[in-house]
Amino acid sequence: MATLDVAAGRERGILRRPMATEGFWSWFTTVDHKKIGILYGLAAFVFFIVGGLEALLIRAQLVGPDGTLLNADQYNQIFTMHGITMIFLFVMPMSAAFFNYMIPLMIGARDVAFPRLNAYSYWAFAAGGLFLYSSFFLGGAPNGGWFGYAPNSTTDPTPGMTFYALGLIITGISSAAGAVNLAITVINMRAPGMSLFRMPVFVWMGLVVQFLLVFALPIITVALFELLFDRRWGTRFFDPTAGGEPLLWQHMFWLFGHPEVYILILPAFGIVSEILPVFSRKPLFGYQFVVFSGIAIGFIGFGVWAHHMFAAGLGPVANTAFGVTTAIIGVPTGIKIFNWMGTMYGGDIRFHTPMMYAIGAVAMFVIGGLSGVTHAIVPSDYQQTDTYYIVAHFHYVIFGGGVFAIFGGLYYWWPKVFARKLGEGIGKLQFWILFVGFNLTFGPMHILGLYGMIRRTYTYPASLGLTFWNQVATVGAFLIALSVLVFLVNVVRTHTKPKGLAHEDPWDARTLEWTTSCPPPHYNFEEIPTVHALDEFWHRKYVEDERSRRLVPAQAGAAGDHGHEGGGHSIHLPGPSFWPLVAAAGLPIMAYGVIYSWWLLAAGVLVALTGFYGWALEPSVAEE
Amino acid sequence: MIECRRAALRWPGAPVQPGETRNVRTKLRWVLALAGVTLLLSACGLSDPSQSTFEPAGPVAQKQKDLFLGVFWVAVAVFILVEGGIVLIMVRYRHRKGRERMPLQTHGHTRLEIGWTILPTLVLAGVMVPTVGLLWDLARDPGREALQITVEGHQWWWGFVYTDLKTTYGDQGPITTADVMVIPEDTDVWLTLTTAGGGARDANGVPDFEVVHSFWVPQLGGAQDVVPNRVNHLLLHGSEPGTYEGQCKEFCGLQHGLMKLRVVVLAADEWESWVQNQSTFAVAPTDEQAERGLGIFMEDRASGAGSCVSCHSIGGLATGGAAGPNLTHFADPTHSCFAGCTWDTSDLEALRTWLRDPDAARLGSKMPNYQLTEEEIDDLIALLTSLE
Question: Which of A260, A546, B84, B346 is deepest in the core (most CB within 10 A)?
Fold first, then answer.
C-alpha cells in the first residue's frame, strides 16, 4: 500500500485521529467491515424488536371487533411505522450486516473496497432510523402507509409524511453508498482464482441485490423529493386539483417497490443456498441454474411493478402485460425451490438449528410463492388486492422466507463472528415456537382476506364473522414474540460462557470464510488465499473422485490456513476515523432543517461538508 | 461437471429399518392430526360472512371466484408435491446417528433442471389463458342499456349519482344518494368512478375527496380504484335481491377503516317504486318539531361558520352544497346506514352522538361541531327521520 505523508494529514485534521481498534469508542470510528457488520446487525435487530412491538399493538387492536386500544390516528401511525421499520430498518440493514461481514471473507478479501464509505453507510442508516422515530415526539409519526400514496400523503396535515420522505431519503443514501461499495468489492476484490462462477451463491445474490439497489433507489429518491416538495414548498407533482398526477407516485413507488421485494428476499435465498449444502454435505444442486435464476429475478423484477396497481384503472392491455410478467417471475423462483430440493436429495441431512431454519424458509416461501402466483390472476386479484390475503402473502415471503433465513444465517455464522455456538436445543425450541406462531399469525390472514377483511383498517365490525381468525392471528403473533424472546435468552446464555470453539469449522463448511480463525483477525487472512474451485474450503478438506463422485478426506495439512495467528504486522489496513460519523450526522440535521429552519439546514450542510473534507484530507491508513 | 450419475437420482427403493421409521411415522401422524384440527377449526370460522368473496351474488363475483378456485386447486397440487417432497427428502435422507455416510457429490442435472424450468412455465401459461380471457371479458363496456351510476369517493363516505335518472324537482338533476347504492336485480350496472365535483376544500383548506379510494363490494365483484383526475369504470351485476356490504379498499387517510357502503339489489317492481320515490322530493315537514329542524338546518351558525345546508342538500327543501351526503331521502328504508355506514340509520342514539360531536364520534370527521343543544339535535333528528 502506498505510503502517505501521515504527519501532514494529522496537521490538517480537526479531530485527533482515533487509533483504538478495541473498546467502546472504537465502535464509533471503526472502518473494519466486520465491526460494521456487527453494528448493522445489532441496530437492525433492535429495530426488529421495535417493529415487532408495533406488530403486537396492531394484533392487540384487532383481537376483537371494534377494538379501542388504539384510535384511528394512532393505528395509522403504528401500521405505517411497522412497515417502514421492518423493510427499511430491519430486513435491509440485516442483509447489509450479513453482506458486510461475509462478502469480503467469502471472496478472500481483507475489507470492502471503500472502508470509510462503509462506515458512512452504517451511520447514515442509523441516523435515518433515529430521525424517523423522532417523529413520534415531534407531532406524529408517518401515517400514510409505507407506500405513502399521494395525494393522501401530500395533504395530510400532520408532519409524519415529511419525516417519511426525509427519513427514507437518508436511509436511501445509506443503501446507495453501501450498494456501490459492495458491488465494487465483489467485482474488484476477489482473491486470485475466485472467478465469478466460483463465488458462493450468497455472494452472487449479494451482487444482484446491490445492482437492484443501484437501479431502484434513484426512482424512489426522485419520488420522495417530489413528495417532500409537494408537502413543504407547495409544488404540485401529485396535486390533482392543479393538474398533478396521483398515479405518477404509484408508478414511481412500485417501480422501486417491486425490485425492493427482491432486495429483501434475495439475501435470504443466498443464505439458504449456503446452509443447505453444508448440512446436506453435498454441493448446491445446479449452481449455475441457481445463480442465473437469481439474475433473472433481478431483471424481471423491474418489469412487474404494475401488479400492485391492477385495480388502479390502467386498462386491460397493461393489466394483461403485467399479469403475464408476474406469472413469468414465478419460473426462476420455482427453479430455486427445485434446486434446493435437489441439493437435499441424496444428502446426509443434519438437522442442526441453521438447517431447520433454512428448510423452514424454503417450505414457508413456497406458500408465499404460490399465493403470489394467484396475484397474477388479474380478475381474482381485483378481489384480493388490499385485503389481508395480500398481508398473508407478503409475510409468507418476507417473514417466512426472509426472517427464517435470517435466523438460519445468525445461527450458522454466529460461531464465525463470536467464536461461540448458539445453544442448539434452545435454538430448536425457538424454531418450533416461531414456526407455529408464524403459521398461526399469517395462515389465517389468507382466510380473513378472502372473507373480506381489508388491509390497513383499525377496526372491523362483529357482523362480518372475522373475529375468530383475528383471535388466532393475535395468539400467533404473541408466540412469535415469545420465540424472539427465546432467541435473546439463547444469545445471553451463549455469551455468559467463555469464548472458544471446540473446532474452528464447527459445521464442516464449504466456503472461504471458514478458512480463517473465529472470529477472524482484523486483516481477515494472513495470506490472501488462492482459489481453485467452487466450495474451495470443502475441496481442501475432501478430494472428490471425478468418476464415482465419492469423497475421501484430503491429505492432512491441506485444509488450509488454520491456526496461523498472531501475524499480520505487515498488513496495512485503513485506520479508524471519526469523519464518516460526522458526515452522516449532517444528514438528519439537514432533514430537521427542512422541517424547521433554514439555519438548521445550513448547519447540517456545514456538518456534512466538514465531515467530507476531513474524510478527504485524512490519509486512509493511520500512522503505525 | 454438471452431469451426475443417473443412479443418484433414482428414488431409492430400499426401505428404512422398521425400528427407525416408527418414530418418524408417529411424528408424521401428529402433523396430520394437527392439520385435521386446523381444518375443523377453519369450519368454525365460517359464521355468516357478509363481505366474503366466497359468497358471490352476481356473475362478475362468481367468475372471479371460479377462476380463483381453479388456480387455488392447481396451487394445492403444487403445494402437496413440493412440501411433500421436502418432507420425504428430509425423512429419507436424514443423518442417522452412528452411521457415517458421505453422500454422492451430485452437482446438478441439466436435463432435469431444464425440465423443471419448462414444466412450471407450462402450468403458468395454462393458468394465464382463462385469466386473460376473463380480464378482457370484465373490461367490456356493456353499452347504454346498462344502468349508469357515477360513484364519488369522499373522505370518508361514498356518494352515488344516477346520471340517467332525473328528478322531477328543482333543476331536474340526477337522483343522488349516499352510503347505500340501490340497483335493480339482473341488470348490468356500469359504474363511473371519479371525483366529479372535486376541488372542494374543507375548513383547513385540505382538499375534500381528492385522494385515492377503491370501490369494493366483494359479493358483486372485485375492486376498482377511484383516482383523482381519472375516470375509471367498473361493471357490476346483482343476480339476487339482497343487501351487500362493501368498503373502501385503498388507504385514504384517518378513517379509511370506516369508509363503508352497502349495495341493495331490488327486484324489478321494488326498483320501480324506489326510483319513483327518489325522483320526487322530500315532503315538507308537517309536524312542528321537524319544521324547527329544517330551520336549524338552514340557519347560519354563529359568525359565518356555515350551516348544515352549506354541505348537505335536501332536494326541494334546502338546496345546498355537495361536500356532504345528499339527505333528500335520508329515512328511505333502503338507506339503512349513514356516515360512511359507520352506524345503522335506525340507531337514533348513534345519530344523536354523531350530531352532538362528529369528531368525537368518528375521529377526524370533516363535519364541523356546531355545538348543537340537545333540543336542536331532537329537532334535527325529527327532520331527518321524516325524509322518506
Answer: A260
Q: How far is CA B187 from CA A8, A396, B135, B236, in A?
A: 86, 40, 20, 8
3-state secondary structure of B144: coil
In chain B, positions 92-151, which contact chain A (CB-CB < 8 Å)?
A: 93-95, 101-110, 112-113, 116-117, 120-121, 124-125, 127-128, 131-132, 134-136, 138-139
- Confidence class for position B13, pLDDT limits 50, 70, 90: very low
pTM of the model: 0.91
Domain holding B63, by residue range, is: 17-36+49-138
Q: Which residue has the cell 370527521?
A: B365
- Candidate list A122, A146, A357, A514, residue with the active-site label: A146
- pLDDT confidence of A564, banded at 50, 70, 90? very low
Q: From the list B75, B95, B120, which residue is nearest A374 (CB)?
A: B75
Residue identified by cell 424488536 is: A49
Residue A179: domain span? 31-574
Domain annotation covers residue A505: yes
Catalytic site residue from A174, A280, A293, A620: A174
Which of A79-83, A537-541, B206-210 is predicted with the least confidence, judged by mean pLDDT?
B206-210
- Domain membership of residue A13 (yes or no) is no
Looking at the complex, does the CB of residue B42 fall below 8 Å from at least one CB of chain A? yes
Q: B130 and B244: one domain?
A: no
Read off the CATH number of the domain in which B168 is found: 2.60.40.420
**Sequence-ordered list of residues with C-beta below 8 angstroms from that of A356, at least 6 positions apart, any chain:** A408, A428, A431
Contact list in A for residue B48 (CB cut-off 8 A) is 463, 465
Pick the catalytic residue: A120, A133, A262, A388?
A: A262
Instruction: Report DSSP letters for B157-220, one per residue.
Output: EEEEEEEEEE-SSTT-PEEEEESEEEEETT-EEEEEEE-TT---B-TTS-BSS-S-EEEEETTT
Is residue A386 flagged as an active site residue? Answer: no
Among B138, B156, B178, the domain boundary falls at B138
Provide the grid cell at B189.
Answer: 350496472
Identify whether A14 is part of a domain: no
pLDDT tens-digit readout, A484-520 = 999 999 999 999 988 888 888 999 999 999 999 999 9
Co-location of B174 and B92 in the same domain: no
The minimum CA-CA distance between A587 and chain B, rounded to whole Å, is: 29
DSSP state of B300: P
Question: Any catalytic annotation for residue A146?
Answer: yes
Whether A548 is catalytic is no
Backbone angles phi, psi at B263, to 5 degrees: -115, 125
Task: Note whether B295 and B270 are same-domain residues.
Answer: no
Judgement on whether residues B306 and B246 belong to the same structural domain of the protein: no
How many domains is chain A built from? 1
Is A82 a catalytic site residue?
Answer: yes
Q: If pLDDT is split at 50, 70 and 90, which confidence band does B208 have?
A: low
pLDDT band, very low/low/confident/very high, at B44 (cuts 50, 70, 90):
very low
ipTM over 0.95: no
